[in-house]
Write a structure and sequence with these properties.
The chain is of the alpha+beta class. It is 30% helix and 32% strand. The strands form three sheets. The protein has a six-stranded antiparallel sheet. A two-stranded antiparallel ribbon has the order 1-2. Helix 2 packs across helix 4 and helix 3 crosses helix 4. The longest helix is centred in the first third of the chain and has 15 residues. The mean pLDDT is 85.
Length: 251
C-alpha cells in the first residue's frame, strides 16, 4: 500500500541530516536515502513542492532546487499535470566487460525476451569488411535482434559476424539463446573493444524501442576477437531512460 503524503513528509523531516551543508542538499540527501532504502518505491508519487514547503517550512526555491537536481540525476521523474514520482531504476551493464544480456536481465529478477528481426548470410560490403578485418565479399552473417526486459524493449542488437569462424550462425534460434551465448561456444572471446556515445534514434529505431524521437539513446559499437581473428562487430542501441553503464576501476 502506498504511504500517505503526510507519513512521507513526517519521516522525511526526521531523516534530514544534522550536518553543515545547504538546506537543499540536506533535503536531497534525505530523499535519496528514502529511495535507496526502498522506503520510497519506484513509480510512487512523492510530495509536491507546495506540500514540502508547507510541512517542512523551507523556501519554495530550496525545495525546487532539490527536486530539480534529483530529477536531473534520474532519481525522480516529473509527469506534467500528474506530479513527481520515484523513477524506475535503470538497467545497467558493466562498462569494462561483455555479458550475456539475458543473464543480466535474469540477475535483476526480470524476464528476458528476444524478437528476431533479421538473420541472413551475405557478402561483406566494404564497410563490413573493414569492421571484421576481412576482404570485401567475404562470407558474413547479419542479424538484428530486439531484446525486451519485462515486455519493454531495452536493446536493438545489430551484428555482423565472420561466417568462417561461426558455422551455422544463420541456423540458430536467437529467441531461445542469445547470439552472445552461441558465439562464445564456437569462438570464445579473447579480447574486445567498444565505443560508447549518445545519439538520436532513427524513426524505425523509435518504433522498435517504443520511444519518442526526442529521446536520446546510448549506442555501443563493439568488436570482439577470438585469438587473432575478429569474430563479430555489433551495434547495440539502448533507450537512454532505461539503461546505464557502470564501471569500477582502481589504481
Amino acid at each position: 500500500m502506498t504511504a500517505p503524503t503526510s507519513t512521507l513528509l513526517s519521516n522525511l523531516f526526521d531523516d534530514l541530516p544534522d550536518t553543515p551543508q545547504p538546506i537543499y542538499a540536506k533535503l536531497k540527501q534525505a530523499i535519496s536515502l528514502k529511495i535507496s532504502s526502498g522506503e520510497w518505491q519506484a513509480n510512487q508519487r512523492v510530495p509536491s513542492e507546495a506540500e514540502v514547503v508547507n510541512a517542512l517550512g523551507m523556501s519554495r526555491m530550496t525545495v525546487n532546487r532539490a527536486l530539480r537536481e534529483l530529477t536531473a540525476e534520474g532519481l525522480l521523474v516529473r509527469h506534467q499535470g500528474l506530479g513527481t514520482f520515484v523513477a524506475e531504476k535503470k538497467a545497467h551493464s558493466a562498462l569494462f566487460e561483455v555479458h550475456n544480456i539475458a543473464e543480466e536481465i535474469s540477475a535483476r529478477g526480470h524476464q528476458h525476451k528476444a524478437q528476431l528481426l533479421v538473420l541472413e548470410s551475405a557478402k561483406a560490403s566494404v564497410e563490413e569488411a573493414m569492421m571484421l578485418g576481412v576482404r570485401t565479399n567475404h562470407e558474413i552473417y547479419r542479424s538484428v535482434v530486439l531484446h525486451f526486459e519485462n515486455e519493454l524493449p531495452i536493446q536493438i542488437e545489430e551484428r555482423v559476424v565472420n561466417a568462417k569462424l561461426t558455422p551455422d550462425y544463420d541456423k540458430q534460434d536467437f529467441t531461445l539463446q542469445t547470439s552472445y551465448a552461441y558465439l562464445m561456444s564456437v569462438a570464445p572471446m579473447t579480447e574486445g573493444e567498444h565505443l560508447v556515445e549518445a545519439i538520436l534514434p532513427s524513426e524505425l529505431e523509435c518504433q522498435r524501442l517504443q520511444i519518442s524521437a526526442q529521446e536520446p539513446c546510448l549506442q555501443i559499437k563493439r568488436r570482439t576477437w577470438s585469438g587473432e581473428d575478429i569474430v563479430t562487430a555489433a551495434r547495440l542501441l539502448h533507450p537512454g531512460s532505461r539503461f546505464q553503464l557502470f564501471g569500477h576501476f582502481g589504481r
